[in-house]
Amino acid sequence: MCELYGTIGAKKISLNEDLNLFYKHSVKHSHGWGLAYWNQNSELILYAEGKCGNDSDLLQNLLVSPIESQVSIGHIRFATAGVISDRNSHPFTKTDSNGREWTLAHNGNMSVGLQLFPFRKTQIGETDSERILLYLVDCINKKSEEKGRSLNSQERCGVVDSIVAELSLGNRLNLLIYDSEQYYVHTNIKDTLYFSRQDGYYCFSTMPLENIYLWDKVPLNSLLVYSGINQIYSGKNHGNEFIKATLSNFDNFNI
């Protein structure tokens, strides 16, 4: 399993302290690292490498320079699908048919369902995580074409909500997604995604970071969507919590 980190807020904040704490976990998640954040002009700044963050000169040089943003998505990778390479390191990004840029990082793996298979031919890397993004954007494009216009805020929430409910059945699906306006958060794995509300922003992390924040668990099985500091959408509980099987449950289950 990988680890996620992210922020969404109403103002720019310094990310350096959090990111230094987060990327220290790279020693246990050594197959890649990535960071997306948005500058004062709302332009995406994206870094991703297929190497351990502790061994990355790029990351170490980045962390000693001031990083300030209202929005961020960070990831450290423990590979379960796809080779160790830059192209398989999260976050992934894709622009929809109306010019909206989507950015996604995933913690988990997809072992059930056929929805993502067609995107193996068009993806850049080999991960199921990248295919989730391609499938999501494809669904957004189809819904937009159906309506003859770009989707509004609540319509985008509805599409993403239906996708996480669909894909979470039998799969590990922790997600941080940003569509250049709204920030989507989802977990269906117990005790694997936490949040802390600070003055003017939210912080999300797979594990509570070793700082003064007070951390709570992100609710299971429901899509949460934020615009700045405001939560604008809470999806219905889809009930698809992922519960790891054990040998006592399935004699022939391969771990």
CATH homologous superfamily caption = Aminohydrolase, N-terminal nucleophile (Ntn) domain
List unreliable stretches of 5+ residues: 246-255
The sequence of SSEs as H and E is EHEEHEEEHHEEEEEEE
DSSP helix count? 4
The domain tally reads 1
Fraction of residues in helix:
10-25%
Spatial strand sequence of the major β-sheet: 3-2-4-1-10-9-11
Q: Radius of gyration from the CA trace?
A: 17 Å
Beta strand count: 13
Q: Roughly what is the average pLDDT, rounded to an integer?
A: 90
- CATH overall fold name: Glutamine Phosphoribosylpyrophosphate, subunit 1, domain 1
Query: How does the overall form come out from the CA principal axes?
Result: globular
What structural class is derived from the secondary structure elements? alpha+beta
Distance between the termini: 13 Å
Q: Report the CATH architecture.
A: 4-Layer Sandwich
What would CATH call the class? Alpha Beta
Note the main sheet.
Answer: 7 strands, antiparallel
Q: What labels would you give this structure?
A:
alpha+beta, Glutamine Phosphoribosylpyrophosphate, subunit 1, domain 1, 7-stranded antiparallel β-sheet, 6-stranded antiparallel β-sheet, disordered C terminus
